[in-house]
Amino acid sequence: MDVIIRGMMFDPANIVDSDADSDAEENDPTFGSDAERDAVLRPRIQKAALAKERALSLFQCVDQEEEEEESNASYSYLIIIPKSKTTEFQLSVRYVSCGASFRLASNILSYMYDVLHNLVLRACSHHDVANYIRVVCVVNLQRIVRHLSRAWAFSITLDSATHQSTSYLNVRFRIFMPTFYNIVNLHAVALPMFD
């Protein structure tokens, strides 16, 4: 199963940059010297770089389209999920869409292997499930971007609701889709709101 994603707007050279450096930490009076601050921040920077590298391990940059400015360069990525992992991918996506966490979905797949003895389901960690869901999110966000770029107007709608005693803020786009001759809601993100 090959998925090609076009027009992703991040530079692969910036994959390992650190988001642990913030103004609040740099001006924090609890750090005595630069050496102490570096000793505290270095493990966090290395951990963030490792997490970013693992998160983007499925995305392979295939080409770059240069635009007028260097900052507006557009990159295309190829995501390859091997044939041996397609069943695992499809089941993981379905379990998470039903509300299972990444760890729960990987446990369900391993229990299915125990019962069915299907070698396709043998080794699935919660990191694998997280990567599969990351692919689905990127593909869906790219589709939303494609629809929004073709629309001459759209509206951003913010809704809030409560589901199982947790409040959510839902961000969705409303656009007119000529193929359906109707106004369509494209849900971008649902953010949980806690106390």
Describe the structure.
The protein is globular. With 195 residues, it is α+β, with helices and mostly antiparallel strands. The chain folds into 3 domains: 1-80, no CATH class; 82-150; 153-195, no CATH class. Strands 1-3-2 form a 3-stranded antiparallel sheet, with helices on one face. It has a 3-stranded antiparallel sheet with strand order 4-5-6, with helices on one face. A hairpin with an 8-residue loop joins β2 (59-65) and β3. It has helices at residues 23-26, 34-55, 86-97, 102-116, 126-150; strands at 2-8, 59-65, 74-80, 154-163, 166-177, 182-193. α3 (86-97) packs across α4, α3 crosses α5 (126-150) and α4 (102-116) crosses α5 (126-150). The model is unreliable at 15-26 (pLDDT under 50).
Please give a quick description of this structure:
The protein has 195 residues and is α+β, with helices and mostly antiparallel strands.
Structural domains: how many? 3
Q: What is the overall number of helices?
A: 5
**Structural Rg:** 21 Å
Based on secondary structure, the structural category is alpha+beta
Q: Give a quick account of the main beta sheet: strands, pairing sense, barrel closure.
A: 3 strands, antiparallel
Mean pLDDT: 76
Strand fraction = 25-35%
**Residue share in helices?**
40-55%
Distance between the termini: 42 Å
**Order of strands across the widest beta sheet?**
1-3-2
**Principal-axes shape call:** globular
Order of helices and strands: EHHEEHHHEEE
Low-confidence stretches: 15-26
| Strands, total number | 6
